[in-house]
User: Fold this.
Amino acid sequence: MTINNVNYIIYNDIKCKSERLVLVAKTVAEYGNDSIEKLEGPDRVRKRPAVIFGSDGIDGCEHSVFEIISNSIDEAREGFGNKITVTYFSDGSIEVEDHGRGAPVDFNNKQQCYNWELLYCEMYAGGKYNTNDGTNYEYSVGLNGLGLCSTQYTAEYMDVEIKRDGFKYNLHFEHGYNIGGLKKEPYSGKDTGTKTRWKPDIDVFTDINIPPEYFTDILKRQAIVNNGLLFIFRQQQGSKFINTEFKYENGISDYVSEYVGDEALTSVRFFNTERKGRDRADKPEYKVKINVAMCFSNTRTLKEYYHNSSFLEYGGAPDKAVRNAFVYQIDNYIKQTNKYKSGESRITFADVEECLVLVTSSFSTITSYENQTKKAVTNKFIAEAMTDFLRHQLEVYFIENKAEADKIADQVLINKRSRERSEKERINIKKTLSGGNSMMDRVQKFVDCRSKDVSERELYIVEGDSALGSCKLARDAAFQAIMPVRGKILNCLKAEYDKIFKSEIITDLLKVLGCGVEVKSKSNKGLSNFDIDNLRWNKIIICTDADVDGFHIRSLIITMIYRLVPTLITEGKVFIAETPLYEINTKKKTYFAYDENEKTDILKMIGDEKYSLQRSKGLGENQPDMMNLTTMNPLTRRLIKILPEEAEMTSSMFDLLLGDNLQGRKEYISENGHLYIDSTDLS
Assistant:
């Protein structure tokens, strides 16, 4: 509000019991002609690093590093130098050394200033603006004349050593400003190149702790698309340096072969071409080089795009071309060979990419990126040229290699039909499991609790109707609900999903849980309908008899949860309620033993005192007060939390005892059968 032309902000004083107004003056600055200002020098980047690097966090810091590396790559691609060394020091500083021509830093008569001033202290200055003329840096990574200067501006310090033209040059910068000018001395060595060491400034970026994995990842990617160029990564650890080298003699072809290994469905193919064109009739013509390495696999999938050495995280033009060409040509082949069933829907790119291993590396003399971070290419002609080229190459490939074409078509159709089946199952599951409390109320014999607070609600999954009766009487109805399991549930370890979700017992349990299902299967990866936020319970407690049948039912329930909703286990939501195996009564006290060892210990403690010993006949035989004391009262019960390792062990044991490994089962019974002889029912 405004009082006497002064703006005030109104706050509620939460420290006071009664609400009162606190007036705080807020000065309103006038927005006039003198309000406009311009950033100068290093502040152009230091105050707004995200404008150049896409972020002021670790991503932006990492991109500033790549700007220096890219300059060295451009030199090597022009034929100057075949090795680039990147060193990551323990103090967080970085050094990039190449063996190119060395950056020109001496006096520039044309510009009437030193070249080092242009390169390191001026935005939009460099030698890569005329790439389409066929002179320097025809296919360069850097284009805009921003990266080198911007990285220098955002560095705590930067030291540069340049060897060229028989001289050695040195420059030193601090916080974006040069200190000491250009130092020049004669140099008799034959080697040339540029060595740059700098440390990103924590005052500019919110985080400068670049993980070593960034360097290994970026250098490997650059080795992939720069045939025969050696990249060395040196990481300082104490007084030593750990070296990692990356080199692909045949570039993307070697990479695809390495990636797919022995799991290829078809042979690795390499296609390349060079085209000329323009993005618009009134725009200049430019050159595009296209390299593609690909194969198909029913176990591996990969799709990576590079342009002028930059990894295109979002693809852009190359991605559009690949989607168009592969779907078009494979669909045509399926039609021509009558592989579609009558009335069957056509394939999509999702079906193709599930078995496609593909890397493209393209270059152009004119490039339009989405932004300075170079994560997507937007050139219209690049998309058109790549689409046309890939369509033609695939058509020829299918004609000349019918056996491989048939493998590709068949695998794509398998992917499509699996996807469609999965989607149908997902929809059916959603229908089966949908509904709120009204659906829960319709679950047979389910007994809900009164509380709606999920943080205190507990679900007891019990064995049969008799256990339902005793647990219902023993529970605290405010927060404990009961769900009886009618007999032994389906073994979910081996069963197909369509069979699992036809089981009324399982679907009823899932309805009561309320969180849906998650299915970890390649062929059913779209099936998941899981959302833990929809879980209706804080604890899910499995409560079965302390006998062989009870243990079996318990294991089946754990296996079901492990396969259909494993997150409930990893989040610590699933428990086992221990039920006593023996009730031991003396004149003064009643004891409960949960296993043979506890029974032995109790009898030793009782000594000569008279007692009666009764073995538990099942939950249904227990009195409500005993059930409450031993199994349901949070103060006296024993709960065992199911951990992921235990669920995996249960699953593995089921796989061994009920799966297809007959020999393994025989060996296990032979070695361990004697341990279970006492539990065998011989009646």
